[in-house]
């Protein structure tokens, strides 16, 4: 549904995105993850037909991004990172304005606006002025705007940025709902955990390079050679930490007040051996938990500390 082939973008001498290949299948919710300045918005703005590529090409819903921009625009709902709402308009008028722009006739518009308002839980704000809405409500209204022409593809640039935790949870729930409706979604974020439970696939971008992408479980598996073990010591914790530090398999060690998290390049046998050794050395533990990597772990492993 979304495809990039050798996409690159330069701003003068500066290369913002290098030679990016990407394929997102229909029905996927793709999390585009990277720190500030990584090149997410540049890629997204190209896909939304707002920016020309310096090299390469892209396709959205079968339409060539540069050859058929109108086809692409009809197929996408785009939410920019810096969105604005027009002052002096009521909520329903704002949506009606975009529905008119998409050429939807008057009769259809009324029911579409009602449906979209209901989906976004904005029905009670129908007649409010948009400039009086809270940030969270404005963000939701912007999301509503992307849906009025019922596009198969949604391209959302940091839709949850600046929202409080409750509003973030609501955005995530909404994304799941939209996925169930069959939408293909590309969503960007620099907050890793934000996307962990609502994406089917992810791509990790840093300094203009897509370092890794694929189905979320595949990406996890690729880095699975590194194991993340959470250990809570009850006695001789200092000795435990020294043992971990002297292990040749240790890649990273995070020490927290109640536990440590060791990243180890080893297998099941190696972990069993380490556990046995800790016990033999008189280190007491209430847990030694080989946990699944989190999105944060994946990101740190993949970017290998290039993040400044
Ligand atoms: N119009 C422009 N002219 C010059 N440089 C630009 C322009 N737009 C973006 N850049 C640079 O290109 C790089 C990528 O920017 P981009 O906005 O795509 O990153 P991003 O991953 O979306 O970051 P953020 O999370 O901060 O939005 C940055 O170094 C940015 O400063």
Topology of helices and strands:
Layout: E1 2-11, E2 14-24, E3 29-33, H1 40-47, E4 55-60, E5 63-64, H2 69-75, E6 76-79, H3 91-101, H4 106-119, H5 135-147, E7 153-157, H6 165-180, E8 184-189, H7 192-196, E9 201-206, E10 209-215, H8 216-222, E11 226-235, H9 237-246, E12 250-255, E13 260-265, H10 268-280, E14 284-291, H11 295-303
Parallel strand pairs: 3-8, 3-9, 6-7, 7-8
Antiparallel strand pairs: 1-2, 1-4, 4-5, 9-10, 11-13, 11-14, 12-13
Helix pairs in contact: 3-4
Description:
InterPro entries: AAA+_ATPase, ABC_transporter-like_ATP-bd, DrrA1/2-like_C, P-loop_NTPase. With about 300 residues, this protein is an alpha/beta fold. It folds into two domains: about 1-215, Rossmann fold (3-Layer(aba) Sandwich); about 225-300, Alpha-Beta Plaits (2-Layer Sandwich). It contains eleven helices and 14 strands. Strands 6-7-8-3-9-10 form a six-stranded mixed β-sheet, with helices on both faces. The chain has a four-stranded antiparallel β-sheet with strand order 2-1-4-5, covered by helices on one side. Helix 3 packs across helix 4 (about 105-120). The radius of gyration is 23 Å and the shape is elongated. It starts with a strand and ends in a 5-residue tail after the last helix. About 35% of the residues are buried. The model has no long low-confidence stretch (mean pLDDT about 90). The structure holds adenosine-5'-triphosphate (ATP).
């Amino acid at each position: 549904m979304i495809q990039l082939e050798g996409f690159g973008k330069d701003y003068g001498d500066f290369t913002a995105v290098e030679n990016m290949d990407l394929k997102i299948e229909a029905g996927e919710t793709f999390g585009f993850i990277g720190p500030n300045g990584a090149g997410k918005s540049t890629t997204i703005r190209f896909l939304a037909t707002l920016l020309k590529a310096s090299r390469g090409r892209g396709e959205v819903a079968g339409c060539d991004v540069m050859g058929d921009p109108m086809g692409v625009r009809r197929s996408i709902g785009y939410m920019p990172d810096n969105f604005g709402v027009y002052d002096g308009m009521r909520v329903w008028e704002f949506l009606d304005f975009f529905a008119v722009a998409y050429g939807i006739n008057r009769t259809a518009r009324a029911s579409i606006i009602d449906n979209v308002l209901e989906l976004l839980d904005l029905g009670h704000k129908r007649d409010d002025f948009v400039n009086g809405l809270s940030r969270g409500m404005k963000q939701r209204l912007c999301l509503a705007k992307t849906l009025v022409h019922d596009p198969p593809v949604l391209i959302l640039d940091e839709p949850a940025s600046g929202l409080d935790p409750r509003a973030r949870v609501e955005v995530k729930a909404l994304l799941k709902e939209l996925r169930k409706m069959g939408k293909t979604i590309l969503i960007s974020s620099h907050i890793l955990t934000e996307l962990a439970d609502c994406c089917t696939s992810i791509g990790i971008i840093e300094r203009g390079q897509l370092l890794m992408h694929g189905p979320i479980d595949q990406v996890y598996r690729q880095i699975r050679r590194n194991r993340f073990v959470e250990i809570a010591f009850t006695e001789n914790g200092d000795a435990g930490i020294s043992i971990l530090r002297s292990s040749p398999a240790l890649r990273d060690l995070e020490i927290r007040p109640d536990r440590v998290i060791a990243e180890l390049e080893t297998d099941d046998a190696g972990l069993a051996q380490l556990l046995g050794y800790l016990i033999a050395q008189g280190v007491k533990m209430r847990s030694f938990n080989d946990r699944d990597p989190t999105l944060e772990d994946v990101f740190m492993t993949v970017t290998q500390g290039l993040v400044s």
